[in-house]
Write a structure and sequence with these properties.
binds 5-hydroxymethyl-3,4-dihydroxypiperidine, 15 helices, Maltose phosphorylase, domain 3, 3-stranded antiparallel sheet, 529 residues, 6-stranded mixed sheet, alpha+beta
Length: 529
């Protein structure tokens, strides 16, 4: 039973002190187990405390509560519920610790995917009733979001890499639409859901061959008239295509892999043909072809996600464009308190751009230090091999390293906030909306998978660190697929990246991938150089 009627039975479970003690013991055992899945020891104490305790704890909270029941966000009584985009990302922060709960959430998310491949933007987890979100407030705008359905591809791929449970891809899950008797009109395998998602994007492109924005992409507050195109969605589509291609290769479906990689190549061509602005990548195109995120614009000249994601998707690899784009980020967007989402902030309401222009310059999505995209910039720097830069960006927003400026920052020192006011705002440095932010999942993944570089792949556990050059090394204990890996990384040559040699239980292994074991404890030693 749900609701107030359930209270007496719940209270009765804790009517005597022995039951209370038992419940506390269970809770403590849960956290001991949860926090033991990944343990790190590095030369940076604030990094260790985030990765060993606070960050995975916040990830559990975001996975459980998405963006509702928060002191900052709309209350439970609203129809916000679980966000498709939000939870598809949050879930990636808990897959190593609670893979089966993660899978259950992934299935729920897939069950609110539309038959056309797009996704309902949000759903109530108790009733599973889904809705189209804020897009319904504007009659003249599309009622779908261009990114939602692509995030779930990343989540399913992460689940498969972590667990090796490829049978899950065949599991049948309904699409959302139902008949009058509430029976789903169509079902499909998990893999079919993912194919429909990427196909939706492939078949909804605009004048430059780039994905249409729909009502919005990751940035909820930029709502351009119909026909606008999104570079963010182009890059997310690229990442999703590569994940799906890898999954298909792993399942032995090489024809499908080739087709998906061809789609990837086509989108890369469209991006490179239209979106390079000279020193950085454009963020959107309006329906009339006007770029947003161009040196030609008066406001919103440069947007972080258009640069970092050009590296994440691999589309910006060509002729050093990705590096140049990230240099523009360092020059115009990076402050000592975190990286701004865009610059300069809009200064006044403009219905043609949407909610972004309702914030003062330097706040939230209008040129604020929006933290959720900061880890994407950090990952981009690791992909470019810049360990010092990556760790510097990490440190700038690490709440455990903000004690000296606690009065200015105002948020908790043990969890990530959603945003910090940026240097165009008089309260530069003030943090807000802590706890329920996608920053948590991404900062956790960034720390473990990209800076320390301990990353489950289909073919084994990858050891691919990108660390500050002055680190002597670090160690990680990682439990995965029934085995324990005790990893020691040494850095005698003081480099950032590049595994020169790898031993597994004393035996030399070629490359930087540890083969999967089903059980036991395994000693891994990697020497960088
Ligand atoms: O991506 C969104 C998220 O879904 C809700 N909070 C704001 C983010 C950026 O607009």
């Amino acid at each position: 039973m749900d609701g107030p009627g359930a209270i007496p039975a719940a209270a009765a479970r804790f009517a005597d002190s022995a039951s209370v003690d038992r419940a506390f013991a269970e809770l403590s055992a849960f956290w001991d187990r949860y926090l033991s899945v990944i343990r790190v020891e590095t030369p940076d104490a604030a990094f260790n405390s985030m990765l060993n305790l606070h960050n995975p704890r916040q990830c559990f909270t975001t996975k459980t509560w998405s963006r509702y029941l928060s002191l900052y966000q709309l209350g439970y009584g609203s129809d916000r519920g679980i966000g498709f985009r939000d939870s598809s990302q949050d879930v990636m922060g808990v897959i190593p610790q609670i893979p089966e709960e993660a899978r259950e959430l992934i299935e729920k998310l897939l069950s609110v995917q539309s038959r056309d491949g797009s996704a309902y933007h949000q759903f109530n987890p108790l009733t599973m009733a889904a809705g189209r979100g804020d897009s319904m407030e504007y009659e003249d705008r599309p009622h779908w979001y261009s990114d939602d359905h692509l995030w779930i591809v990343l989540a399913v791929a992460a689940y498969a890499k972590e667990t090796g449970n490829y049978a899950f891809l065949d599991k049948t899950v309904p699409f959302y639409e139902k008949d009058k008797a509430e029976k789903p009109l169509e079902t499909g395998s998990v893999l079919e859901h993912l194919f429909r998602g990427v196909f939706f994007t492939r078949s909804h492109t605009g004048a430059h061959g780039l994905p249409l924005l729909g009502f919005a992409d990751w940035n909820d507050t930029v709502n351009l008239p119909a026909g606008a195109e999104s570079l963010f969605t182009a890059h997310l589509y690229g990442w999703a295509l590569r994940e799906l291609a890898d999954l298909c290769a792993c399942l032995g479906n090489h024809g499908k892999t080739a087709e998906l990689l061809q789609w990837y190549g086509e989108m890369q061509e469209a991006v490179l043909a239209s979106a390079w602005d000279g020193d950085w990548f454009v963020r959107y195109f309006n329906a009339d072809g006007t770029p947003i995120g161009s040196a030609k614009n008066e406001y919103g000249k440069l947007w972080l996600n258009a640069q970092s994601w050009a590296v994440l998707s691999g589309f910006g690899d060509s002729e050093g464009k990705g590096r140049k784009a990230m240099d523009a980020v360092a020059k115009h967007l990076a402050t000592e308190k975190g990286i701004k989402l865009s610059w300069p902030g809009y200064n006044g309401y403009d219905r043609e751009k949407g909610g972004v222009t309702t914030y003062p310059p330097g706040a939230k999505e209008n040129g604020g230090i929006f933290l959720h995209p900061n880890p994407w910039a950090i990952i981009a720097e690791t992909l470019l091999g810049e360990g010092d830069k990556a760790f510097d960006y990490y440190r700038r927003i690490n709440p455990a390293a903000k004690n000296a400026i606690a009065d200015e920052y105002e948020c908790e020192p043990y969890c990530y906030a959603q945003n910090i006011l940026a240097d165009e705002h008089p309260n530069f440095g003030l943090g807000r909306n802590s706890w329920l932010s996608g920053t948590s999942s991404w900062m956790y993944q960034t720390g473990v998978k990209h800076i320390l570089g301990i990353r489950p792949e289909h073919g084994g556990l990858l050891i691919d660190p990108c660390i500050p050059r002055d680190w002597e090394g670090f160690s990680v204990i990682r439990h995965c697929r029934g085995a324990e890996y005790r990893i020691s990384v040494k850095n005698p040559g003081r480099v950032s990246k590049g595994v020169a040699s790898l031993t597994v239980d004393g035996n030399k292994v070629e490359g930087n991938r540890v083969p999967w074991f089903e059980s036991g404890t395994h000693e891994i030693e990697a020497i960088l150089g």
